[in-house]
Structures
1.
Amino acid sequence: MNYNQKFDEYKLDFVKHRKKYFIVSLVLIVAGIISLLTMGLNLGVDFKSGTRVQVQIGKTFQENEVQQIVEKTGLKPGSVTTAGDKKDMAVIQFAEPIHKDEVAKLTKAMQDKYGKNISLQESTVNPIISRELARSAVYSILIASVFIVLYITIRFEFRFAFSSILALLHNVFLVLTVFSLFRIEVDLPFIAAILTIVGYSIHDNIIIFDRIRDNLKHAKLKSIQDIEDLVNYSIGQTLARSINTVLTVVICALALYIFGGESIRNFMLALIIGLIFGAYSSIFIASQIWVSWRERDFKKQKKAA
Amino acid sequence: MIKWSRIVTLLLITAVIFGTVAMTGKKVAMNTTLGLDLRGGFEILYEVAPLDPKQKATKQTLQDAVHALESRVNVLGVSEPEIQAEGENRIRVRLAGVTDQQKARDLIGKPAKLTFRDAQGNILMDGGDLAENGAQGAFDQYQRPIVSLKFKDPKKFADVTQKYIGKPMAIYLDQELITAPTIQSVIPNGMAQIDGQKSIEEAKNLAAILNAGALPVQMKEIFSTSVGAKLGQEALQSGVEAGLIGTAIVLVFMMVYYRMPGVIACITLVAYIYLLMLMQNLMHATLTLPGIAAFILGIGMAVDANIIMYERIKEELRSGKSYLSAMRAGSKRSLSTILDANVTSIIGALVLFWFGSSSIRGFAITLILSILVSLVTAVAGSRLLLNLAVRSNLFNKPGYYGVKERDIREL
């Protein structure tokens, strides 16, 4: 039996429309660049100087009432917002870091107004620390990328490694884009989310590339059509797995997003967006980059021969 | 022919897993060390600088400052305080479960003051009189552990010893009495020793406290985060609840979609969650809020390993192989895929651990652990149980594997 015949059997042609996927991603990336350049990211106090105080009041309240309490203690709040499922949490942001004595004063003022039972969460960051954090995050991604490229090049080939990393950076960038476009606050756990996305995108890519590699062993690539058939066949084979995996992880992530409480909501949102982009890009971007690259090399070989 | 012995073994293993989880699960869960975001507490990062701008902070100064903070935190009676030196000039203090956070912060933040006092409590000398790193843990000529002291101004010390000879001189760190050695003779050269230490460790400890108290350092809060106890508890509760809901949906999904193998996946998933908690405890890893997220993601990864394996088995079945050989080929071929995918994820997590700060580190450890545990349960455990199930011949119908009869090809 001719192996290549086997690879002709696929139901969905993923390769055919690859230019369209590239264009979609390119448009999103351009939108992201514009958004990041004009609006930037909505950085939480973790990334800029300032203090964030979160007060669990235990009942609904008026934002301007809280504002007045803060002002009475001699502090200038940047903003007071309501949070929490029961709308019983006040988040007060200060553009300047406030001193611990001022936190104590504020705690007392809040207790006088809303009772001893309130619970307070405070975080203050100095700009030096926040810059360090952001820098270390960028370094982490770059260093992780280098190691992952090395590993995949050893286990697979450079074309796979490079396509994976491109898809990975694409995913990370698109999550940043979504957060920038919708003005969602970026905090410290966001970095953990981004790095999880890095791990997961690669995970997802590898599964498909592994199958392509496996099928390559039995294939004789005589024409460009053979390459495309093989990739379509490989994606088709792993499609159920790709969908089911992203489904189960997204179910878990969604459960945490909905029921997991205020403090991890942004973190989970970043993860969910990243997971979906990760699944999308391993089928529609990473594999397609590989096909285009492989075909170009194939044409070159033909010419040389 | 149905082989009941395999079924019995399968049921027995399942019973052991569920039995262990039912009996010890709650205890294991309760033993988990919770981060301060889950039980309240605070974390402060201090920048340490010498009071005298001409002096330079050294590694030794930093270490001594850490010792001083430790002895102060001990006064508070906080369980498991974490005080670590970071980099060149930083100290991170993490206290979980502190009831009076304000008091703790005040106590930690102010400079330590070492004083030498007479019986009436009058201050004779202070930490500034002690030479820098002037206290050392050592042995005297009889090999007994002692603390040797060196003072900056031999004359001042000689005067004090002359005046108080034969009397105890109390050494205080802030308001806490550290030790009260008796002055035995007039000391002219500024070199003194405190004996009566039980061990060299004790002597070194005391020396560190003395050095730290003598340390003219300034500590500036550059990062702080505090979580009220009630907020922490709520975060824990909602995190755990959300995790249970998510897991339950995934378990149902697996059973409906993958049938018999799906049921096996559920058994191994329960084992996975239990083992991960156990490992987490054994390593004294702290569970933080992002850690719970890593935990749940780990469930996703473990399920993924099962999905990859079962999809492969389904393919082999469709290609017309027997149940046993389909299972063998499927689990063998899926292994390298699972390994490659997980190694890359571990690389990502390791980099995260290397460069991340505290809360991210907890997350990375949980993620790495979860991948390793999932390899044991979702790959090895799942294979073992599936093997038993297939060999029992009880499930010899494609429907048990979620495969349609008409999809199976002739070999």
2.
Amino acid sequence: MRKLRIVGRYVVMSLCAAAMIGPFVWMVLAALKTDADIRAVPPTILPDPITGENFSRVTDAFDFWRFTANSVGIAIASTILQLVTATSAAYAFARIEFRGRNALFGLYLATMMIPLQVVIVPLFIEMRNLGLVDSYAGLLLPTIVSSFGTFLMRQAFLGLPTELDEAAFIDGANHFQVFTKVLLPLVKPALATFAVFAFMSTWNSFLWPLVITQASDRHVTLPVGLSRLNGRFGTDWNVVMAGSVISIVPIVAFYLVTQRWVIRSVAFTGMK
Amino acid sequence: MVGQSGFKKALTVSVFLGPSLLALLAFSIGPMLGTVWVSFQEWNLIRDAEFIGLENYRELWGDDDFRRALLNTLYYLVGYLPLVIIGGLGLALLVNSKFKGVAMFRAMYFLPVVTSWVVVALLWKWLLNPNDGVVNWALGLVGIDGPGWWTDPTWAMPSIILASAWKDLGFVMIILLAGLQSIDESLYEAAKIDGAGPWRRLRSITVPMLTPSLFFVVVISLINGFQVFDQVWVMTNGGPVGSSTVVVEQIVKNTFTFGRAGYASAMSVVLFVIILIVTALQMRMQKRWVFYG
């Protein structure tokens, strides 16, 4: 009876796994199929013959490597800047007493309620007035601060005893030294959590890059490039899937390496 | 700090807070106020803006497309929320205990979460392709004549809901899993001694103890749900014949296609107010059903 239950559990879990992984497998198989193969009715399961042509068609159709470089560059730059702006603000909120601190922190929290979707028009106008439409700066700037990250890092700092700072101050350290030398090394797990989040959200973001890069092909990121592929190769699903495969390889590799970490950190932030 | 002058302290605070505060003002708070301001203008982004007061809002009130977008957004939420919450809870319960390979299953269920919306939308657009999609082919094998999915006005929104739920199930699972793992084991032991069966334990212990996590997931999902855009843009572009149009897609189209930035901003303000009201309502309602042990 007990054994039967265990077997039953594995069967259900495997079915669910098939539902979650199956589409990805189908995507990879499609990317390797020829034009005739992809249109076959009933659909063939395994690509026969296997072709790598779709990948070169994707890279020929667009400046694919440039889009990839754009995505990687923006995601890394955004992650680093978010870490800097959010941790330093979090330090001030957690460790320096100043007038209006709570009100200001409340303001930070309130901005979490303002989605990009709601401010997209003025944000676009602002970037246009600054001459930053279709530029890396325009792509990057709105992503450089995260009030959610500030909140997360403040929690991490609040978890550390204030005796640490006091001891350092007695030794003649200033706030900047306490921040970088004493506290930051102690919140590495929270930093890593936040970095993973920041990287994934910038890497996958679509609406802002779509809007700000529409004038040309130079600053397009992978998701936007892919969505353009959708129109051009609407019926050549093998080409579209090849593009999709290329675009998820980096993030899936990143995920597989940091997987335990990602899952734990999402769970952690969910608990608040 | 002891003996620190007011000026020096102010300087320190501004160095630490300055960058993020400036960025927030420039890219979030400022534009938010800007949205309100632009919503009172008639403006196509090229000519000079013209102040027209509440005219945009009045027009919104009678705009069938916007009404449809609002109703569709609601439709999306009504379909999507139960699917991800119940499905996510099911998955979480499935992978809650310790056994061989459980980490691998969790990782697999979470994979769609790390994938971008664009890829998920493209993938499902193809899987649900009415002519040569694998879903309709599989349905055909068991004798079901699959619908036209995203090419059929009736099925366009369900197609989007299906893809969205598939992507977010893993996220809900992980949040609920964390909640499940913080439940004290001794509660179950006591219930077992009292003769409570598995179903009873689920209803009387697991679900009540899980309500804070459920609350978090519902709040986040609702806020995100009102902003649904990427998958609509890629899968249906709001069509066919407006059957899957949503609020954000109307905002983008009005700004960049129809050149009506003021009108789109009025939509943004309405969307923001709705999100604010719904979130505030939930905060008030939480006393009724959320149980903080």
